[in-house]
Every structure is written in C-alpha cells, then in structure tokens.
Design goal:
Elements: H1 3-12, H2 19-22, H3 71-82, H4 86-99, H5 104-131, H6 135-148, H7 153-197, H8 201-214, H9 219-240, E1 251-253, E2 257-259, E3 266-267, E4 288-295, E5 306-313, E6 319-330, E7 333-338, E8 345-346, E9 351-356, E10 370-378, E11 383-390
Antiparallel strand pairs: 1-11, 2-3, 2-11, 4-5, 5-9, 6-7, 6-8, 6-10, 10-11
Length: 391
C-alpha cells in the first residue's frame, strides 16, 4: 500500500468501543502481569522551620534618685547601667556600699548589674553554639540569658540572629538536596540509556521508574519508559511468537491530527505524491500530542491487556479540555461514545493521562482487526485526534 494511503487510513479508520470487551468472559488461565508500573510518589520534602518573631526587650529597671553619703557613686553606677556597662556599674555600686552599706539604691543597682554580667556570659556561650551550628544549644543559652537580663537589647536581638542562621542553614541544605537529586536523576537516566542500548529493557524500565520516584513529571523518564515498555513487549512477542506464517502483530499509533478553530487546519500528515494536504496557519501551532501506551504491546489470545492514553502539551500555555470521544472497531464492529476525562487541564511541558481502559479486558482469540480512536476537544474549540491500531 502506498505510504500516503497508509497514513490516511491510520487516521480515517473506523474504530469500535472498548465496552464490548468488558462483556467477554475471562479465561481460566491466570492473568499476565502488566508491563506498566505506576511510579510511587516522591518522599515528602522537608519544610524549613519558620523563624520565630523578633523578641522585644523588657523595660529596663528603674532606680530611685541617689541620696545619702554615697550619692555620687550611686549616680555613676546608675549611669553606667543605663549605658549597658555592667562591669563599671557593679564597681561603682560596690564602692557606694562600702561607703554606705545600708543604701538600698546601691544594692539594687549592684544586683541588676551582676545579672547583666551573667547574661552576657550566657550570650557568649550562645554565640559559640551558634557558630558551630548547634541551634538547640544556642536557643537554650539565649533563654538563660533572657531570664537574667530581659531588658538587654543585645540579648533580645540575638533571637533574630538564631532565626536567620537557621533559615540560611535550611536553604543550604535544600540546595544540597536538590543538587543530589539532580545528580541522582542524571545517573539513573544514563544507566537507563545504557540498559536500553544493550536491549536490557527490564533494567531500563526499572531505572526510569527510579527517576519517576524522585520526579514524577520528568519528561525524559516518561518518554523513555514508554519506549522501553513498547520495545520490551515487541521483543517478548517476537521471541515467543510464531516461527512462520507472518510477522508478529502489535499495537501501533499514528501522528496526532490537530484541527484549530479555523477551517482547513490539519496537522499530522506529511506531503506525499498524489495527496493534497492543506495546513491551516493556526492549527499548525497547536501544541497537543495524543500518546498511547499499550501493555503488552503485542497481546496474545487470552492475555489481559490495557491501553492508556495521554495528552502531551508541548506548548507554553495550558490546554483546557472540554470533551473526549472514544471509539473502537473490533473485526469491523464499531462502538463509540463520550467518555469522562481523567483531567481537564494539561500544564505546559507536561503529559497528563486522559483515559485508560479497564484492566480486566482479555484479548479475544481469533481477532483479525482492532482499532481505537481518541478525539479530544478543547474549550477553545480545537480538536486533537489520533488512532491506535493492531497491525
């Protein structure tokens, strides 16, 4: 058959509904394991602990007007305390008490100055803990300093320093984790490519699955896994198929036909001799591609099979889906009808599942022809069409 007629036949073929398969009894033989593995979700990402709100310093202690024999020393002690010089305040208060041992103002200044001195010692210990990255110890030492001198501005401000250091450490840890994930994905993809080059399809699928466990939307792994499953199924069918009497038949899908809102906009055919193909300017830019996954790719009589349909968005804008029609033809008997969409929005650069046949369908003995056609319509009135055929 000429190539252009084959291309036209692939899209224009009559197709029938998969519902006919559900009514057929399953064979007594045990079902064959599905080739498509569902990727497990990635491990939860560790969320950074939010920094605590800034701590407000308590009001500074107030002292009575200095009086008595040591009034000058007391005023000096009070001034040094207000300036945050706890050592100088303590010395001046001690001098005042030596001159006037019963002076209550001097005693109060001395007690608060000594608390400030001890708080600064705790603060230095907290700084050392922060420098080595021990946030728990730094916070513990800071709390001890805050109990001693809640009025000290330096003690209060140190809480923000701990919060900033924790946030910085979390960012560094996230960056290292992302770098490690990227390196791991690259390594798995390289191993998958090596396995595929050696026709070790099961190993390739396993490596693609490892990538999808880390990044479920990784396009290289999604596309690579689809190809690996198809290659493995065809290789298995060729190895176990008939030795004579014709080639092994398997599922094959064609190019997506995209039709825009303007008439005459078809995408998906190549110019061939004797075929007049008109391409609309708007439809040529439609980014959607309908992709099939068949498991297995070459089903045997009595074997369970499953068809998964995806829409790949290769554009920069989201595709909003409105309706979907599924039609199948089994040995010339056609059934079709609307089917609920699995998703209604496909983000740019993503591939989303839109339909999947039940997993209990069984390939009928004596099947001569089988075709499935998917038609997707968007909210903008655009149409995507593609067909999967058993050949």
């Amino acid at each position: 058959m000429p190539m252009h007629r084959l291309a036209l036949a692939l899209v224009a073929v009559s197709v029938a509904g998969w519902l006919a398969w559900k009514n057929q009894p399953a064979p007594s033989a045990p079902p064959v394991a599905q080739a498509v593995a569902t990727p497990t979700p990635p491990p939860p990402t560790t969320l950074a602990t939010p920094a605590p709100p800034p701590v407000t310093a308590a009001p500074a202690p107030t002292f009575e007007d200095a009086g008595g024999k040591a009034a000058a020393q007391i005023r000096g002690a009070q001034a040094a305390f207000k300036a945050g010089s706890y050592d100088r305040a303590a010395r001046a208060a001690q001098e005042a008490l030596r001159e006037d041992p019963a002076n209550e103002s001097a005693r109060r200044v001395l007690e608060n100055a000594q608390s400030g001195q001890n708080a600064l010692v705790q603060l230095k210990t907290a700084e050392a803990a922060l420098a080595r990255g021990d946030f728990a110890a730094a916070e513990s030492e800071l709390e001890a300093a805050r109990r001693l001198a809640p009025w000290d501005r330096g003690v209060a401000d140190f809480s923000s320093r701990i919060g900033e250091a924790k946030a910085r450490a979390q960012r560094d840890a996230d960056a290292k984790a992302q770098s490690a994930r990227t390196a791991q994905i690259t390594d798995y993809l390289n191993q998958a490519n090596t396995a595929m080059a050696a026709r070790q399809y099961e190993a390739g699928i396993a490596f693609y699955d490892r990538v999808l466990e880390i990044d479920p939307n990784n396009q290289a792994a999604l596309i690579g896994k689809t190809g690996a499953i198809g290659a493995k199924s065809q290789a298995d069918a060729a190895a176990g198929g008939p030795r004579s009497g014709g080639a092994v038949r398997s599922f094959v899908f064609g190019k997506t036909e995209a039709k825009g809102t303007e008439p005459g906009g078809l995408v998906g055919f190549e110019d061939s001799a004797g075929v007049d193909v008109k391409k609309g300017t708007q439809a040529a830019e439609l980014p959607g591609k309908i992709v099939f996954e068949a498991s297995p790719a070459a089903p045997k009589p009595g074997e369970r099979f499953k068809i998964s349909v995806f829409l790949s968005n290769e554009g920069s804008q989201a595709i909003q889906l409105a309706t979907m029609t599924v039609a199948t033809v089994l040995d010339g008997k056609r059934q079709s009808g609307p089917v609920s969409l699995s998703v209604t929005t496909v983000a740019p650069g993503q591939r989303a599942p839109v339909f999947q046949t039940p997993g209990d369908q069984v390939w009928k003995e004596g099947t001569q022809s089988w075709t499935m056609e998917i038609v997707l319509r968007t909210v903008k009135g655009e149409t995507y069409r593609n067909a999967l055929s058993w050949k």
